[in-house]
Amino acid sequence: MKKLISGKVRDVYDIGEDKLVIVSTDRISAFDVILNSTVRGKGIALNLISLYWFDYTRNIIPNHIISGRLSDMPAYFFQNPGQFCNRTVLVKKLSMLPYEFIVRGYMFGSMWKEYQSTGAFCGRTPQKAYCLAEKLTAPVVTPSIKNSTGHDEYISLEQLKNDLGKNEAERICEISLKLYEACLKQAEKNGIIIADTKFEFGYDSDGKLTLGDEIFTPDSSRFWALEDYHPGISPRSYDKQFVRDWLTEHGLNGVTPAPELPEEILNATIDIYRECCRRITGTDIF
Fold first, then answer.
1. Residues in domain SAICAR synthetase/ADE2 N-terminal (predicted)?
2. DSSP class of residue 251?
């Protein structure tokens, strides 16, 4: 079985015939470093949450999922259910665009930092004053270009239009906003605010625009507890912000060799992913 990629979280296998198998592991990364700890059940949570949202949004845009059943995959996978069950998907190969389409609905993260220092973000100047974690008047798309090493680089919508063509860039941004707005409402029914998220797109063998990678997971989004949300303070999260905060507080953000998480931080992180999966999908991973 040919493993193409062993990434920060996912292992990707080429099984031929324009298909891939993607396995979500229990690895966790922060600040572009894979930590020297694994979060039990994390890969299962990511996979089940992503499958839930891919199914929920298939009327908005086609996605790359073929199946989440091991029985539809080569023997290497279905003969090892303890290793692959509930964390593995069969997908279509896509010609991926080298961009992330980040949709932001709340003033937080890098957007908040740049807004504090310049009053703008990615060339956009808000029409009103905002406090930390405040909901934006309308969600915005802030694209970035993917770099093979280091951080992705934010680009302007004008550059995106120059790269992709005006019509295609606007079409993908419109789809990104539709995805965000539809799933924001659904998540709120389950007590979660999706503060921001990112999408990746590609083209299938027929040239059809297709949603790929993962969507609306705790690794690709900021999830906040709706019941605790108040503008002006950093909300309680259901994502890996908890780990980022701990690393930052201890001066370990981006440090190599990668640190191990203390047992209490690791257990709390396991609980966060477990509760996030339960709230969104209704499934308890343990």
1. 4-250
2. T
Q: How many residues does the chain have?
A: 286
Q: Which of 90, 95, 97 is nearest to 20 (CA)?
A: 90
Read off the tokens for 138: 């309308």
Directed axis angle between helix 166-189 and helix 42-56, to 10°?
110
Beta bridge partners of 223: 194
Say what the pTM is.
0.95
DSSP 276: H
Over residues 136-147, the pLDDT tens digits come to 999 999 999 987
Q: Could you list the beta-strand ranges (E) of 107-254.
A: 135-145, 153-154, 192-203, 209-212, 221-225
Q: Give the helix ranges, DSSP H, for 60-201.
A: 75-78, 81-84, 109-118, 157-164, 166-189
The tokens 């694994």 sit on which residue? 38
Instruction: Find the angle CA(136)-CA(140)-CA(141) to the nearest 5 degrees.
Output: 155
State the helix-helix crossing angle for 263-281 and 42-56, rounded to 10 degrees: 20
Rounded CA-CA distance 170/67 in Å is 30
